[in-house]
């Protein structure tokens, strides 16, 4: 795993309401926490860490603004207007018995370089491989969120 310094805002998955009907393995919970930490980590190495430790080699990563198959490139431009960000998951559902297809609800709080701040909910789908192993990986990730507040904050 990459050496990511813990941030003062703590775990991204500490308060998650996990599915009661299907156990989500601890290694999957840790992977999701590390994934969100890397998204919130403003370092040039974050894209490489995502590619090397989070995603499969053939993964697809869809954000509200782009689709990436070259995961190492996914963080380029992510900090152009953003000063700080913090993603957390609050509720997670599983679509199957091995917890390899998850639907999560979360919140993102962003501080923009223009001094504005925004907060909003998001929904994501995460398809994983190796959920019963010590090193699960994300094969597909897609997130949906309302980009209106971001656009408005950038125009103010």
Summary of the model, kept short:
The protein has 156 residues and is α+β, with helices and mostly antiparallel strands. The chain contains three helices and six strands. The longest helix is centred in the N-terminal third of the chain and has 14 residues, at 26-39.
CATH architecture: Roll
The name of the CATH topology is Nuclear Transport Factor 2, Chain: A
- Encode the helix/strand succession as letters: HHEEEEEEH
Number of helices: 3
CATH class term? Alpha Beta
How would you classify the quaternary structure? single chain
Strand content range: 35-45%
Question: What report would you give on this structure?
Answer:
- The protein is an alpha+beta fold and 156 residues long.
- The protein has one domain (26-155): Nuclear Transport Factor 2, Chain: A, CATH 3.10.450.
- Helices cover 20% and strands 37% of the residues.
- Strands 2-1-6-5-4-3 form a 6-stranded mixed beta sheet.
Protein topology:
Blueprint: H1 26-39, H2 46-54, E1 55-62, E2 67-68, E3 82-94, E4 101-112, E5 117-129, E6 137-145, H3 148-155
Parallel strand pairs: 1-6
Antiparallel strand pairs: 1-2, 3-4, 4-5, 5-6
Protein name: SnoaL-like domain-containing protein
Organism: Oidiodendron maius (strain Zn)
């Amino acid at each position: 795993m990459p050496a990511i310094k813990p941030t003062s805002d703590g775990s991204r998955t500490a308060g998650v309401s996990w599915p009661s009907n299907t156990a989500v393995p601890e290694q999957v919970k840790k992977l999701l926490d590390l994934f969100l930490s890397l998204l919130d980590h403003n370092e040039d190495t974050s894209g490489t860490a995502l590619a090397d430790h989070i995603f499969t080699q053939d993964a697809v990563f869809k954000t509200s603004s782009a689709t990436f198959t070259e995961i190492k490139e996914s963080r380029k431009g992510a900090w152009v207007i953003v000063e700080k960000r913090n993603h957390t998951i609050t509720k997670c559902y599983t679509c199957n018995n091995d917890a390899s297809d998850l639907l999560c609800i979360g919140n993102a709080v962003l501080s923009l370089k223009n001094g504005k701040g925004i907060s909003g909910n998001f929904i994501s789908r995460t398809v994983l491989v190796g959920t019963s192993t010590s090193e699960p990986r994300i094969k597909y990730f897609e997130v949906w969120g309302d980009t209106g507040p971001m656009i408005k904050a950038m125009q103010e």
